[in-house]
Amino acid sequence: MSMEPIRETYILLPEGTDLLMYLVLLPFAVVFLYGLYRRLSVTGFPSLRDIWAGLPYVVRFWLLQRRVVRERLAGLMHVSIYSGILALFIGTSLVFIDYDILRNFQARMLRGDFYLFYEAALDFMGLALLAGLGLLFYRRLVLREARLRPKLEYLMVLSGLFFIGLTGYLLEGIRLTLEPRPWGGWSFVGKALSDIVFAAFAANTLQTAYVGLWWSHAIVAFTMVALLPYSSLYHIFSTLLHIAANAPKQPPTGKMNTPFKLEELTPEAEIKVGFRKVGELSGMGRLELDACTDCGRCEAACPAFEAGTPLSPRMIVQKLKNSMWMDGGLETDVFASGLIDEEEVWACTSCGACIEACPVLIRPMNYILEMRRALTLEGRLDKRKNALLTNLARYGNPYGLDPSVKQEFVEELKSMGVRTVEENPDAEYVYWIGCASIYDARGREIVKNMARILLRAGVSFAILGVEESCTGDPARRVGEEGRFQEMALANIEKLKSLKAKKILVNCPHCYNTFKNEYGEFGLTVDVQHHTQLIAELLRNGKLSIGKGLSAKITLHDSCYLARHNGVISEPRTILSKLAGEDGFIELKRSGLKSFCCGAGGSTYWYEVRRRDRESIIRLREVLGSGAGVLAVECPYCMQMFADAARVMGVEDKIKLKDVAEVVAEAVEK
Ligand code: SF4
Ligand code: SF4
What we know:
Blueprint: H1 17-43, H2 48-63, H3 72-101, H4 112-143, H5 152-178, H6 188-196, H7 203-227, H8 235-246, H9 283-290, H10 297-301, H11 303-306, H12 313-324, H13 342-346, H14 353-357, H15 364-377, H16 383-395, H17 404-415, E1 429-432, H18 435-438, H19 441-457, E2 461-463, H20 473-477, H21 481-497, E3 502-505, H22 508-517, E4 526-529, H23 530-539, E5 553-555, H24 559-563, H25 569-579, E6 584-585, H26 614-625, E7 629-632, H27 635-648, E8 655-658, H28 659-668
Parallel strand pairs: 1-2, 1-3, 3-4, 5-6, 5-7, 7-8
Helix pairs in contact: 1-7, 2-8, 3-4, 4-5, 5-6, 5-7, 8-9, 12-15, 19-28, 23-25, 25-28
This protein binds iron/sulfur cluster (2 copies).
């Protein structure tokens, strides 16, 4: 026996076991390769160039699991299992290289200090795997977390992994009992088992048990590998490929894709928007679906799900994914087959919470909005959605109000000293007021307060006046791409003729459209939300406010400002200044994790069947925070919460104010 620590492979096993093992492995390998081929032939395989470009994302989101670890228990559990599997895979590969390749050249790698480290590291990582699996069983079987769907397949896969980990230790323990080595202590789990458990057994019993355990360990491991492309474990591969291929190309979450350019369409062109069949998606779109791990984080974050609408983003993705693997599933019409209910896709507020929550960068919202487009193309719209589109076409606003209403408001603003672009053509900012602040009385108050701030700070700005029309956002979110582009092109032409360089908006939806969607149609402008401009005015001393609030204040982040566009710090800077450090209360769901008011994605304009209203759920959260004032930064949020407060009868308990209103009051004080 060598006194140098060295990996001894196939000891205690009959002669020829190595050859027999490779023969046994063969059919398992064939099943694995066929499964892999079948899977990739449906989803496609990213090009090597794409994989290279996606490497930084793979390191961040796949290797380091940046989003998985956001949740403490689930993160700890997943990282333990994942790193345990990865370590065991690397360990087994090293044995293969050492025994099946290097040994033939009279060389060895698993020897000396490296081998000792190898043994200790593998024992440690095996423990991590078992602990992680134990935690997962605890969550699924004891805690029975609602988010984790009970599926027999998951339990079988987890049991298989547990069996491999456990039998690995048992084999090590028996080996160290029958063939003790001076360095055995480095395999600390195996050594402990040897000393505590196996020392009491007869040698021939252990020898027989060893051979049986060795083969059962190998067969279960081979089975797991063979079934990998057919089981939930395949997410190890599919998430890797999806992140590499798709992550670098993902646009800002607030930007919908452009299926055609109206200006470039010829009369013969066949318009194809959205999808009704999974087969109509691109290969990489299907790969993205295939990466879904069914973790349920998107569902837990979804306001439509919490409000009891028929929508769950997890189920949308899972149903589309499963459809890929059904016979003829690629060609199955998801609506006609009953797989997806139209109500599900209309319930989405396009808040983006599902995208933000997904640990593997899947965008459930995009599939939903694309299916909407297919429905709209076929005219499957109810009365209210049709009315919305008609109003946009006929009146240039979603309310269907006569533009004379706008004229009245423009006159009111002019009486305050606000000038139009004709009167002030060199203004630094074009103040785009937005429909919700022109046609709604509460929204108008926000504009008047903002105008007071601008006039006081000496900002050079001008309004479009009666020339202003809707950006087209509601048309795009309801799936009417043509109407959106018509409105966008008209607005862009107008703004270009004015040589507008900076646009100021109240509405996060206008903000998103200017920032993310008009660029593709030829308009590049610097767009600022009023909270950004106010923060800038405070920073450069053009505006000054002191602590002016006695009541505690909290902030509802708008999805289209905070989550889709990352404007998070500015309103906080302003409100903390006004309320003092202790006067500003952060809601539990805030910033990127804000909870939608329920108005986005054009759902403001039609009815959605639901158990509860998103705005009421949110207002309950606000009331529980102890704040006396709720600040908002979107005129739609304002309307939603004003309604919710009325319905709940809490108008006297919580004051609703736009950030601009709070600032204007403080300035005027
Ligand atoms: S975008 Fe928002 S409402 Fe729509 S599915 Fe995602 S989380 Fe739910
Ligand atoms: S889409 Fe993402 S967050 Fe939702 S269940 Fe699938 S992996 Fe989880």
